[in-house]
Amino acid sequence: MVIVGRHNLRRGCNAATEVTACGGRRAVSYRVEASKAHSWSDAQLDALFAEGFPAFITADQEVKKYIGLVREYFPHLDVMLVDDEKGEPVATGWGVPISWSGEVENLPVSFADVLRRAVEVHQTGSGADTFVICGGIVHPGRKGTGVAEELITSLCGTAETHGLLRVLAPVRPTRKHQYPLFSIEEYASWSRPDGLPFDPWLRLHARLGANVIAMAPEAQTMTATVGEWEKWAGLAMPASGEYVIPQGMSVLRLDRDADLGTYVEPNVWVRHR
Predict the structure, then answer these.
(1) All structural domains of the chain
(2) Angle of helix 200-207 versus helix 147-161 axis, rounded to 10
(3) pLDDT band of 35, cuts 50, 70, 90
């Protein structure tokens, strides 16, 4: 995969911006725009999110306290990459502004804390100086074509547009679920012979100049009933104990007497600037 050109993204997501990437057969032109600039069909959105996050990701009760306000306050920080030729969305991502001292000790303690701090900045009118990339999805058919790199670059450009000098991301490593019994510290330390991170998503951020600055061992805490976990995992869970679940980056701890399953998911903090 070769990037033909890095285009000026300083106009941000309120104005369409052209990005060109070159795959093995043809150059593809992508337009970067606000996620709500167009109404997409259900079929197009279903295709885009076909390999999105696992169902249990919605079970973080703390995130639920803030996500509605985040959507209300920061729609201008959502971006969509559109294939101009085919007229279809190929990637989308979003982030929020927070105030951060630049010290590792002052990082949000969880994903919910990121959202809480963003809501607080908005409601108090205090100054934000940092953009936190909160999520990104690439169309399954566009993976490995450079779209993910352009998505992250576009989000960093959006931060610059809005005067947010620092850019962070609590990265959800894409292969950690294959190694759920290893700690996030050990997993994140693995590298390839070329020195780049073992994990593809961490590797992508590294290639774009980001550095790992801290672990987030309790980035999200998902809680739900035994029945809900059995449905999400597609597994019978007849006894209390620890379970390895599909797409789980760590183990699920189940208490049948309390009808409660708790899953704590780790992330890795990276800094782009």
Answers:
(1) 2-220+266-271 (3.40.630.30)
(2) 50
(3) confident
